[in-house]
């Protein structure tokens, strides 16, 4: 399919779910009760994406308290001095007092998360998880020579998760590195860790790099030129980047940097509640087509939708799907009419 539409990962968290998540971290409800609530929320998020017409859906990352703790808190060798939180979305302070044990099997439960999602939709699924570089930035104390070594150790844990995900049927995995833009000088370290995660795991791999999306605000600003040339060594099939908020000026960076693989084109600004017009989306896609061929483009929001009201997220996705359909129809019509034109000329 030309210009498939998808999401980056997260889905809006309703206020009632925020309250229940916080209740769990304050010890007011059990893990089993929270799990039942998560199941219901994920099924609703899948239905919302399907109704909007999204081609490749996600679980909305609704089981996760935030983009870091869901992974670090489950990782053997990581210590949480306090297991409670005032608010579910807060970050834990974690330490790694000794080198992380090298896992023989998956330990984080991500394959089970995927299996639940697979059982409740017939559409292709993108399953995302936070990358080793970003996770390493949130460890307060560790025994490694530097954070690059810590990131490589975390990458080994995530590699086992990736194997388990592939064995359970996952075909499209995405590594999110939301902290990378804040440390552009360490891009080589990040790519080295990413390659440990993906090593010999036979799925389609995406790498998402944004400028942060904490409470719908960017954490950093800049341009994607910092990715090059190091990102060319990343053994991934697709770069998933934000262009909706920042505009198109970074698109030439991809071509100039030599990126000849797929691009997840961010066309929806997730930090603005204003809903884009389908025409706006179509225009952004057409501008990208001047530099990236259609068969290498997927269409997605800039980042996760967690901090938007659900009504806004649904409307934004519907506009994205409609805008992509307009451009797809134009491309398909042009391809279909070409043989007729040639025949008439002969």
From TrEMBL:
<keyword id="KW-0862">Zinc</keyword>
<protein>
    <recommendedName>
        <fullName>Cobalamin-independent methionine synthase MetE C-terminal/archaeal domain-containing protein</fullName>
    </recommendedName>
</protein>
<dbReference type="Pfam" id="PF01717">
    <property type="entry name" value="Meth_synt_2"/>
</dbReference>
<keyword id="KW-0479">Metal-binding</keyword>
<feature type="domain" description="Cobalamin-independent methionine synthase MetE C-terminal/archaeal">
    <location>
        <begin position="3"/>
        <end position="324"/>
    </location>
</feature>
<dbReference type="InterPro" id="IPR002629">
    <property type="entry name" value="Met_Synth_C/arc"/>
</dbReference>
<dbReference type="InterPro" id="IPR038071">
    <property type="entry name" value="UROD/MetE-like_sf"/>
</dbReference>
């Amino acid at each position: 399919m030309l210009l498939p539409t998808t999401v980056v990962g997260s889905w809006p968290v309703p206020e009632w779910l925020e309250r229940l998540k916080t209740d769990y971290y304050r010890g007011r409800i059990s893990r089993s009760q929270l799990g039942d609530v998560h199941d219901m929320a994920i099924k609703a998020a899948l239905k919302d994406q399907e109704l909007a017409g999204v081609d490749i859906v996600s679980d909305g990352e609704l089981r996760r308290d935030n983009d870091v703790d869901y992974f670090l808190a489950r990782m053997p060798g990581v210590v949480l001095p306090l297991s409670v939180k005032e608010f579910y979305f807060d970050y834990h302070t974690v330490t790694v007092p000794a080198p992380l044990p090298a896992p023989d099997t998956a330990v984080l439960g991500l394959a089970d998360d995927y299996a639940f999602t697979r059982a409740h939709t017939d559409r292709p699924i993108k399953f995302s998880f936070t990358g080793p570089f970003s996770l390493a930035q949130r460890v307060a104390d560790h025994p490694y020579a530097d954070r690059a070594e810590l990131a490589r150790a975390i990458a080994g844990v995530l590699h086992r998760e990736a194997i388990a995900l592939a064995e359970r049927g996952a075909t499209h995995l995405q590594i999110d590195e939301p902290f990378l833009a804040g440390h552009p000088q360490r891009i080589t370290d990040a790519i080295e860790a990413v390659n440990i995660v993906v090593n010999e795991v036979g799925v389609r791999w995406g790498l998402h790099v944004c400028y942060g999306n904490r409470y719908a605000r960017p954490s950093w600003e800049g341009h994607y030129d910092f990715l090059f040339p190091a990102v060319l060594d990343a053994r991934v099939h697709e770069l998933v980047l934000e262009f909706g908020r920042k505009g198109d000026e970074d698109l030439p960076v991809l071509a100039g940097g030599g990126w000849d693989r797929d691009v997840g084109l961010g066309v929806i600004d997730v930090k603005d509640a204003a809903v884009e017009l389908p025409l706006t989306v179509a225009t952004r896609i057409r501008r990208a087509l001047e530099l990236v061929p259609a068969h290498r483009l997927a269409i997605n929001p800039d980042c996760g939708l967690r901090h938007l009201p659900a009504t806004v997220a649904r409307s934004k996705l519907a506009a994205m799907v409609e805008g992509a359909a307009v451009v797809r129809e134009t491309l398909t019509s042009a391809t279909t009419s070409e043989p007729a034109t040639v025949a008439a000329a002969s």
